[in-house]
Amino acid sequence: MNIPRELRYTSTHEWVRVKGGVATVGITDYAQRQLSDITFVELPDEDDEVSASDEVAVVESVKAASDIYAPVSGTIVEANTALVDHPETINSDPYGEGWLFRIRMSDPTELAGLLNADGYEEQLPQDEEE
Fold this sequence. Notes:
CATH class: Mainly Beta
Oligomer: single chain
Radius of gyration: 14 Å
Number of strands: 9
Largest sheet: 6 strands, antiparallel
CATH architecture: Beta Barrel
Shape: globular
Strand order of the largest sheet: 1-2-3-9-8-5
Mean pLDDT: 96
Order of helices and strands: EEEHEEEEEHHEH
């Protein structure tokens, strides 16, 4: 299973990449595999103010719908609108073109509460690892 070392993670399977005070957020390889074929994405609006753990997006697949939570507090600065027409990109490139939204963080210290790659991997069900 692909768990990039440089990212931070939530226990609800979101990943975070930080650059210059902006956090790019997506769902992990594990999450997209669990959902299987993603068919629809509902994204947050630009300029939405969010708090860490707020429900901010929805990803639907042939199997289920899954709420996506903000890993940090701040303002949505961009949503990956390309996913509206091509939600399957999340399946093929969850850590790249399949990102969901970007948040300008209001409290960067919240990153300390997120999991590193080892911590994320440890909390996954053991039978799901490859």
